């Protein structure tokens, strides 16, 4: 747990340097007490509530996750391909519905007009069938 607090204190101190901000400036901008700001800057756990983290992140112009040092998870290539194929499938359904509307064809479901499975190709295009 101490490592997590140390991570936050590093983010706070690095951001203060980036902004040329003193501890007094941070106290004024955050509305937090000098003791709480000092504690957070030095990796302490006292006063780490949701409200304190929010006030500190707002004062530093960071998201709460950035302040906590949370790193976004990177999706795998396979996961991204699956997502692209899903989006392309939805777009295909929309296109089928649009064509049906333009031609005045009543659709009970897109499955009845589906041309085949949509497969994402490596160049960003899609192949149907």
Provide a descriptive summary of the structure in words.
The chain is mostly helical. It has two domains: 2-68, lambda repressor-like DNA-binding domains (434 Repressor (Amino-terminal Domain), Orthogonal Bundle); 77-128. Helix content is 60%, strand content 5%. It has six helices and two strands, in the order ααααααββ. The protein has helices at residues 2-19, 23-30, 34-41, 50-60, 64-68, 77-103; strands at residues 118-120, 126-128. The protein has a two-stranded antiparallel sheet with strand order 1-2. The mean pLDDT is 76.
How many discrete domains? Answer: 2
Q: Note the overall shape.
A: elongated
Q: How many helix segments?
A: 6
Helical content band: 55-70%
Let me know the CATH homologous superfamily of the largest domain.
lambda repressor-like DNA-binding domains
Number of strands: 2
Mean pLDDT across residues? 76
* Assembly context of the chains: single chain
- Helix and strand content put the structural class at mainly alpha
Summarize the entry for a quick read:
About 60% of the residues lie in helices and about 5% in strands.
């Amino acid at each position: 747990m101490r490592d997590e607090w140390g991570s936050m204190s590093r983010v706070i101190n690095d951001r203060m340097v980036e902004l040329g901000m003193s501890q007094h400036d941070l106290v004024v901008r955050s509305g937090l007490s000098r003791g709480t700001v000092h504690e957070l800057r030095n990796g302490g756990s006292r006063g780490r509530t949701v409200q304190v983290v929010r006030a500190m992140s707002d004062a530093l112009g960071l998201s709460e996750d950035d302040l906590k040092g949370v790193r976004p998870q990177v999706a795998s290539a396979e996961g991204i391909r699956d997502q692209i194929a899903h989006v392309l499938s939805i777009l295909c359904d929309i296109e089928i519905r649009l064509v049906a509307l333009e031609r005045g064809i009543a659709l009970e479901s897109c499955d009845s007009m589906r041309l085949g499975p949509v497969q994402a190709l490596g160049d960003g295009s899609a192949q149907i069938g």
